[in-house]
Structures are given as structure tokens and as C-alpha cells.
Design a protein that fits this description.
This protein is α/β, with parallel strands linked by helices and 340 residues long. The chain has helices at residues 47-55, 122-126, 129-143, 159-170, 184-190, 203-210, 225-231, 269-272, 277-294, 311-319, and strands spanning 3-11, 22-27, 35-44, 69-77, 89-93, 105-109, 114-115, 150-153, 174-179, 194-197, 216-221, 235-243, 261-264, 302-306, 326-330, 336-339. The chain has two domains: 3-128 and 270-339, Quinone Oxidoreductase, Chain A, domain 1, CATH 3.90.180; 132-264, Rossmann fold (3-Layer(aba) Sandwich). It contains ten helices and 16 strands. The strands form three sheets. Strands 3, 4, 5, 6, 7, 14 and 15 form a seven-stranded mixed β-sheet that branches. The termini are close together.
């Protein structure tokens, strides 16, 4: 018999709802070439977590550990890693095809890591990657927004929406955001000039009124393909839409009328690509976006912290699409040795 280090983690035995997740002990993972092991201090929760729990991935090996957003400390280096050292504080957006961050330790590609933003706690940093990097990529890499233009942000109280509102404010845009009535003050405080209650008002009519019939220059849709389709009519001439939750149905739109541009935003596709420069880009966004958070120009929007065991309930609430800001889990720090 030998000994093996084990860690506590939240695992999924088969595709299912968040309440099928449970805490147990699993073997401590070891980093491979080009990888590091990170001791997880905090892990952010995102809609992709409950969506992936429901469907699974073809290359998953169960029990699977969810969790894409991690802030923690480098604990071990794999072969061919020379840019990081044990003890470095990092945060990152992970690969959903691998085991994730809802455990005491996680494996990460070294090229995708970014330094922890100075002045932020692990909890605050873990709130940033998935939603924040997505918003940053949408505005500055895809839409390439220009000051003075008008933007419509669907779901302004959510993670991607809330970070998009803040980034749009910093970029000097005129911001229209949709949210439920009880989140209106929250979204206005983030920087929205106009807030539309999507539950009680016709969004298209309100946008037309606010823009005097012109439409908006940019749209960020965080809702659904159907919502993205309906949003196309709200674009101005030469307007652009960034789709976070699915592409629109162009058969429902009169082509060559407005010369619109459509952008698909899929942050984690960097890992599915064979182009390693895509991982460098994830790290670069982490550095640039993290710098804004360090300066206090971006609020991490942490509205709630939970324990590892409370993640399933939090994911269920997140799936109901009425959670404001970000939920972050704190993770206990000790691994232990067991005899095998």
C-alpha cells in the first residue's frame, strides 16, 4: 500500500441538475507539460456551470469537477513551465473540457494565467474571468467600440451585462440597458443612462424612442438566440451586435438594409483551438481587465459568497436568471494524505 494526497472537491457523476453535485475527496491532480497546479482560494460561479452540468462534454472523465473561474496560488509546475513560480498569485478562466475549480486544487494552462489584480482579494478576482473577460472581448476586441456611440446591453444586472455596462461607461458610450425593475438602481449605478424594464416595457419601442428612431450603434445580447434575432431591428445603419448566448436567425431579417455586423463571443473556444496564441490572448485580457479592477474603475460586483457545499443551491438560483452581479465560492485550503 502507498499514500496518495487527496483533496476536497464538488463532483458530478453524470449529466444532471446542480443538485446532483456533491462534495467528496478525489486524488490531488498533477500538472502536465505546459501546466501548473493552483491552490484554489476562490471560484466564481457562472451560467455555463449549470448548462454544462446538464449536458456534459464528450471528453469528460467522471467524476467531473465544474468551475471555470479561479483565483489562487501556484502550487506546482509541470514540465516546460518557466514563467511562473510556486507561490505566485494568479487568476484565470479555465478549460471547460477539463476538470475545473470547484475543488481545493485545479490544473491550468500556464499560458492562460494572469497575475492577480493588485489590491483585489481572491474572492473579488474570482468574480472577474468568465463574465468580465467576455464583456471585455465583446466591447474591445469584437465591437471595437468608439466614444460617443450608443450601446444597448441586454441583461445589465447579470455578470456579463454588468461588466459590459461598466466598460461601456469607461469607453464614453451612451448606455441603454435592460433589466428587471428591482435591479434598475443597481444598473444605473454601474453607469447606464437609460434602463428599460424588459418585463413591463417593449424594449424595441423604448430604444426607438430614446434614439429618435435611429437605433443603437452596438448591442450586447446575453439572453438567447431569439432575443438576438429580435434585437437586429434595433440596430442603426452599420450597427454591430455581439452575441454571448447564441447567434440570431438571419432568415428573420431583411438583408442589405442596414449593413450590420454580427459577432460571436465564445471565450472558452481559445482552449478548443489548436492556436496557442489564443491562450496568450486570454492572459492578455486578464492583465488588461485586471488593471481596470486594480484602479477601481471596474467593480467586481460580488453580491454573495458561498461555501463549496453551497454551490449547488447557488447554481440553481443562478439558473433562474434573477441573480444580480456575481456569486463566488470560498474554498477550504488543506489537502490530506490517505493510504491506498
Amino acid at each position: 500500500m502507498g499514500s496518495q494526497l487527496v483533496m476536497k472537491a464538488l463532483v458530478l457523476d453524470r449529466p444532471g441538475t446542480p443538485d446532483s453535485l456533491y462534495a467528496t475527496e478525489v486524488d490531488l491532480p498533477k500538472p502536465g507539460p505546459g501546466e501548473v497546479r493552483v491552490r484554489v482560494h476562490a471560484a466564481g460561479l457562472n451560467p455555463i456551470d449549470y448548462k454544462l452540468a446538464a449536458t456534459g462534454m464528450p471528453d469528460w472523465k467522471y467524476p467531473q469537477i465544474l468551475g471555470l473561474d479561479v483565483a489562487g496560488v501556484v502550487d506546482a509546475l509541470g514540465p516546460d513551465v518557466d514563467e511562473w513560480l510556486d507561490g505566485d498569485q494568479v487568476y484565470f478562466h479555465g478549460d471547460f473540457s477539463r476538470r475545473g475549480g470547484f475543488g481545493q486544487y485545479a490544473i491550468a494552462k500556464s499560458r492562460a494565467l494572469a497575475w492577480m489584480p493588485e489590491g483585489l482579494s481572491f474572492i473579488e478576482a474570482a468574480a472577474l474571468p468568465c463574465a468580465g473577460f467576455t464583456a471585455y472581448q465583446a466591447l474591445h476586441r469584437k465591437l471595437k467600440v468608439q466614444s460617443g456611440k450608443t450601446i444597448l446591453i441586454h441583461g445589465g444586472a447579470g455578470g456579463v451585462g454588468g461588466f459590459s455596462v461598466q466598460l461601456a461607461r469607461l469607453a464614453g458610450l451612451k448606455i441603454i440597458a435592460t433589466c428587471s425593475r428591482h435591479n434598475a438602481k443597481f444598473v444605473k449605478d454601474l453607469g447606464a443612462e437609460y434602463v428599460i424594464d424588459y418585463q413591463a416595457e417593449n424594449v424595441g419601442d423604448k430604444v426607438k424612442l430614446i434614439t429618435e428612431g435611429k437605433g443603437v450603434d452596438y448591442i450586447i445580447d446575453t439572453v438567447s438566440p431569439e432575443n438576438a434575432t429580435a434585437s437586429l431591428e434595433m440596430l442603426a445603419l452599420n450597427g454591430s451586435i455581439a452575441c454571448i448566448a447564441g447567434l440570431p436567425d438571419l432568415t428573420q431579417f431583411e438583408q442589405f438594409k442596414k449593413a450590420i455586423s454580427i459577432h460571436e463571443v465564445a471565450l472558452a473556444s481559445a482552449y478548443q483551438s489548436e492556436d496557442e496564441s489564443a491562450l496568450d490572448e486570454l492572459a492578455r485580457i486578464g492583465i488588461e481587465f485586471g488593471a481596470l479592477a486594480s484602479k477601481g474603475q471596474i467593480k467586481p460586483m460580488v453580491e454573495e459568497t458561498v461555501t463549496l457545499e453551497e454551490i449547488p443551491d447557488a447554481l440553481i438560483r443562478l439558473s433562474m436568471r434573477h441573480v444580480r452581479g456575481k456569486i463566488v465560492a470560498t474554498v477550504p485550503q488543506t489537502a490530506r494524505e490517505t493510504v491506498k
